[in-house]
Design goal:
Mean pLDDT: 87
Strand content: 15-25%
Number of strands: 20
Number of helices: 12
Low-confidence stretches: none
Largest sheet: 8 strands, parallel, barrel
Radius of gyration: 22 Å
Distance between the termini: 54 Å
Oligomer: single chain
Length: about 400
């Protein structure tokens, strides 16, 4: 197998805006959910009409679309599955992401020609399981997140080359095994295995062990308790070469519930890192600014997950919040007569220094010498949500480019 030609960058698409962002900033494929059977029920923004539109938009740019069908449905839900499958096929999707064997069987019955990807929810950690799913008709397996690169390489050696290997390389991780968790169901009545997780693992807790004398857990970080259940985020942008060498075909970014800004920035960073690897696989070394890029989105403390073995304190740090150093302030819509035509996202002012991130390029810093509203009137600040505005600029930037500003702590 030619490893270089096998790499796919797979980005999340929580709605049409995020799908367009993923496509614009370099994804080879996107994954998304409809209104049923997806693991992100709260962010399932695609009905079958918008799914058809989104798929057509992606296909026009040469980008594939994978639809999640990876919950663990109960008996009553199975009755609506055939229509769901037929509608998905009519929308033109390229593959279904499935975890339940019953759903897999029905998908093969109703859509015998549809490509099937086995979800990370299936918990595949060995080549025997991967081979079994391949024999049942799967084209791809999305591996459990608890595997090391060495284990993945071994699995790749022991499976048919026609079976694609996909793995998460960036984004939020779950304290439970590959997302199989009952904590949300116990505490809130919202079943994580049916796409309704309330993420109680991100909450603060006081934990006491009373039957193990002499064994102490560092749980009392402050008066608010600890976040010992709260997993760090995954980031493998500095290890593209190692991921490829292990035989991973599809590099998956987590984040269907994240913003279009997040999708744009992270997709762009990984696109450029992968391209740098493909240009010179033997000497891959990501430029420092690429590592900085993924820290300019809202994120938790980063780790490399299980890729290099069992993480040390991988599920433990000071709080349950996010690290955020930049805010998106506007999106470029065009360029005319020496001015950027933009749409506001957050407040910024004349005199601010901002960065502009254009697809496929390193961000550029500019100074905002003046601001004008949509009618050309000078203004001191862009303070109204989604307002049209103009910024004098000596060079054009592509439509869809992101304008962001560093958050200065007062």
């Amino acid at each position: 197998m030619d490893i270089q030609k096998s790499i796919e960058l797979l980005a999340p698409a929580g709605d049409m805006e995020r799908l367009e962002a993923a496509v614009r900033f370099g994804a080879d494929a996107v994954y998304l959910g409809a209104e049923q059977f997806g693991m992100r029920a709260a962010s399932a923004k695609f009905d079958f009409d918008t799914l058809k539109q989104g798929t057509a938009h992606a296909h026009a740019q040469g980008v594939k679309v994978y639809l999640t069908c990876n919950t663990l449905p109960h008996n009553a839900e199975m009755e609506s599955l055939p229509d769901f499958l037929r509608n998905a096929a009519q929308a033109g999707i390229d593959a279904l992401i499935i975890s339940d064997i019953g759903v897999l069987t029905m998908a093969k019955h109703y859509l015998p020609d549809m490509e099937i990807h086995i979800s990370t929810q299936a918990g595949i950690v060995n080549y025997a399981a991967a081979n079994a799913y391949y024999q049942m008709g799967a084209k791809r397996v999305v591996l459990a997140r608890e595997l090391s690169l060495e284990e993945i390489a071994r699995l790749r050696e022991k499976t048919p080359p026609e079976l694609d290997i996909e793995a998460f390389v960036h984004g939020a991780m779950c304290v439970s095994f590959s997302g199989r968790c009952l904590l949300s169901s116990y505490l809130t009545g919202r079943d994580a295995n049916r796409g309704e997780c309330a993420q109680p693992c991100r909450w603060g807790y006081h934990l006491m062990e009373e039957k193990r004398p002499g064994l102490y857990f560092p749980v009392f970080e402050d008066e608010k308790g600890t976040y010992i259940l709260n997993a760090k985020d995954l980031c493998m942008i500095e290890h593209i070469d190692k991921l490829a060498a292990a035989g991973i075909k599809s590099f998956k970014i987590e984040g269907r519930a994240k913003s279009s800004y997040y999708v744009s920035v992270v997709t762009n960073a990984y696109r450029m890192a992968i391209d740098a690897y493909l240009q010179d696989p033997a000497h891959f070394q990501p430029q420092p600014w690429l590592s900085e890029e993924v820290r300019k989105v809202s994120h938790r403390q980063y780790s490399t997950g299980f890729f290099f073995g069992r993480p040390e304190q991988g599920q433990y740090y000071e709080n349950g919040g996010y690290i955020r150093s930049f805010d998106i302030v506007a999106v470029v819509e065009g360029y005319r007569d020496g001015r950027l035509l933009c749409r506001q996202r957050n407040k910024f002012c004349t005199g601010d220094r901002v960065e502009i991130l254009e697809p496929g390029k390193k961000p550029q810093e500019i100074w905002v010498p003046a601001l004008y509203d949509g009618e050309g009137n000078p203004i001191e600040a862009a303070s109204h949500a989604m307002m049209e505005l103009e910024i004098p600029c000596t060079q054009p930037f592509a439509a869809g480019s992101i304008i962001r500003r560093e958050i200065i702590e007062s």
